[in-house]
Amino acid sequence: MSNKRQKDDIRYCEKCGISYLWSVEEQKRLEAGARPPECCPGCRQILPSAGRQRGMVKWYSRRKRYGFIVRNGQPELFVPASSLSQPEDLRTGDLVEYSLGSNAVGPIADAVVVVAAVVAPDPTMDEPANRPSRRRASK
Q1: Where in the chain are the domains?
Q2: Range list of β-strands (E), 1-139
Q3: Is the pTM above the cut of 0.70?
């Protein structure tokens, strides 16, 4: 067993090229034999996990129990309800992460997880009766 003291390490991101600090705390979290990160914390947050892809929900119907994901530069991908952990949370415009699977018809999105959900607008603000009046009260 080595008594070699760990110290913070300056590394360079293989994706974006910036330098980042790989702290002693992060190094200690790694299991024995695990490889150090290849990307900066920003790229690790933005990029999909290994073996997964990202796309945006084109539409999803809870009643029909399926929908489609739009992928960058690739055909749309079918999303069956069985691929979702919580189908009620999937909305048009959500950013999702998934792995590719297939069924008898063709490729499907499998193990779909919402990365960034679309915030629904407040429906009460669209009603004129609920908007504050701009008129001054008469004396």
Answers
A1: 9-46, 53-116
A2: 9-12, 19-22, 53-61, 66-71, 74-80, 95-102, 107-116
A3: no
Q: What CATH topology corresponds to 53-116?
A: OB fold (Dihydrolipoamide Acetyltransferase, E2P) (2.40.50)
Q: Residue 1 pLDDT more than 50?
A: no
pLDDT at 66: 92
Compute the mean pLDDT over every residue in the chain, rounded to the nearest whole number: 81
117 and 89 Cβ atoms separated by less than 8 Å: yes
Which pLDDT score, from 0 to 100, does residue 109 have? 93
Q: Residue 114: which of 139, 87, 133, 75 has the closest Cα?
A: 87
Distances (CA, A) of 68 to 60, 82, 115: 6, 13, 16
Cα 77 to Cα 98: distance, rounded to the nearest angstrom: 10
Query: Helix, strand, coil shares of the chain as percentages rounded to 5?
Result: 20, 35, 45
Contact call for residues 46 and 72 (beta carbons, < 8 A): no
**Residue 77: band (very low, low, confident or very high) from pLDDT cuts 50, 70, 90:** very high
Residues 6+ apart with CB under 8 A from 15: 38, 39, 40, 43, 47
